[in-house]
Each structure stands twice: as structure tokens, then as C-alpha cells.
Design a protein that fits this description.
Elements: H1 6-21, H2 49-66, H3 70-97, H4 115-122, H5 135-158, H6 161-180, H7 182-197, H8 209-228
Helix pairs in contact: 2-3, 2-6, 3-5, 3-6, 3-7, 4-7, 5-7, 6-7, 6-8
């Protein structure tokens, strides 16, 4: 039994008949199944543009890998890397804005009820939610970001998609937290960066892209609701 559905089967028959009659040459592409149509992600309309763009590009990359289209995934990789570097710019700005000076320490002002929710989104155990980070923690966080940029450059050259997926998951999630709850996420960002640098276990490592995105969307809604209450 043919695996071609009636619509495409009829079109293929017409192409073959036209070729036999000499009306037009047979299009070789008609004999091969086309690639799956690009799936549009929903629920990202209120996300910041840079984050939405890299999540969509990353989704295309991961989908291509899952459907055994490695060349397509490789072509999407540079766009994902550029987007992740842009998100690292935003994360750096937030960390710099919360950096304590000799006369002022970071505070938890405006973070009531948000720290635990942001920590859950970032995969930080409750026991790791400590006092506001000091100058040394901020310096360490900025060094880690520099290392992440170096890793992204290496991954673009090596095309190591497995490592890129793990790195993208971390950066996209941290950027989402900082956009949604900047004060709370700014306080927790050094801890999140340190945990990633130390390869601390992350419960989202083995999740599918769809599972991660659904969790991020639900977490964002909860954080927005708590911020507005």
C-alpha cells in the first residue's frame, strides 16, 4: 500500500503524466517527501524580543536534531549562539546593576515571596538560598559569564549540540527569570552561575524542549501574578 495520501498522490500522478506527454519535465522534488512544516511556538507574545527569538531558534535546532536533520540543526546553530550571547549581555547588565559597593550592599528589597519561586525556576535548592551576594560573588559571576561566552564560541566551531542544549537551557532560563523578576533573579544569579560552573545537578537536564518551555511559561505566569498581588 502506498504511503502517499490521496492529495499528494494525485499531484504526483499529474506531474508524471505531464512529464510523459512532454508538457514539462518532472520535478525531482515531487518524488521525495517534503520536510515537516515549521512549528510555531505559542504563548511567547509577551516575552521580550531577544529571549523569544533565541527560544524559537533553539526550538528549530532541537527539532531538526530530533528528526535526524543534522545539517539543518548545524545551520541553526550560529543564530542560537548569537542569541545566547545577547542574553548574556542582559544578564551581565542585571548583575552589574546589583553589584554592591563598599558603602552599599545588595538588598532583598522588592523580592518578598519571589526568591523561592525564582530559585525553583532556576533549579536552585531552597538550602542554597543564602544572604545577598557580596562583591566577591559578583566578580565570580562575571568571570563565569566570560567563560560561558568562550564555551559558546567553541561550541559554534565544534557543533557539539548536546553541550549547547545544556548551556542554552541555563542561559534562556536565567534570562527569563531576570526579565520577569529582576530584583530577586539578580540576587540569585551569582548562585545560579556558580552552580552551573560547578556542574551541579539540574532537574531539567533530561527534559524535552516542550517540557522545559511549558515549565518556564507556567513559572513566568506565577511570578507575574505574585508580583502584581
Amino acid at each position: 500500500m502506498s504511503s502517499i495520501v490521496p492529495g499528494p498522490r494525485k499531484k504526483l500522478d499529474e506531474e508524471i503524466a505531464a512529464a510523459r506527454s512532454g508538457a514539462k519535465p518532472l520535478d525531482a522534488s515531487a518524488l521525495a517527501p517534503s520536510a515537516a512544516p515549521k512549528q510555531q511556538l505559542s504563548g511567547l507574545d509577551d516575552w521580550p524580543g531577544p529571549l523569544r527569538a533565541v527560544v524559537e531558534a533553539d526550538h528549530d535546532r532541537v527539532t531538526a536534531l530530533a528528526t535526524h536533520r543534522r545539517k539543518t540543526a548545524d545551520l541553526a546553530l550560529p543564530e542560537v549562539v548569537r542569541g545566547l550571547n545577547e542574553l548574556l549581555d542582559l544578564i551581565t547588565d542585571r548583575i552589574e546593576a546589583g553589584k554592591p559597593s563598599l558603602l552599599r550592599k545588595s538588598t532583598a528589597a522588592g523580592t518578598d515571596g519571589l526568591l523561592e519561586d525564582v530559585a525553583e525556576l532556576l533549579g536552585i535548592p531552597a538550602d542554597d538560598i543564602g544572604p545577598a551576594p557580596g562583591r566577591s560573588e559578583h566578580r565570580a559571576a562575571l568571570r563565569t559569564i566570560k567563560q560561558l561566552r568562550s564555551q559558546l564560541k567553541d561550541l559554534e566551531a565544534s557543533r557539539d549540540h548536546s553541550r549547547l542544549t545544556r548551556l542554552a537551557t541555563f542561559i534562556e532560563r536565567l534570562a527569563l527569570a531576570i526579565d520577569t523578576a529582576p530584583e530577586a533573579a539578580g540576587l540569585l544569579a551569582p548562585t545560579a552561575l556558580d552552580r552551573f560552573a560547578q556542574a551541579a545537578p539540574d532537574f531539567q537536564w533530561d527534559w524535552t524542549f516542550e517540557q522545559k518551555l511549558r515549565h518556564w511559561q507556567e513559572s513566568r505566569k506565577a511570578l507575574v501574578a505574585r508580583s502584581e498581588s
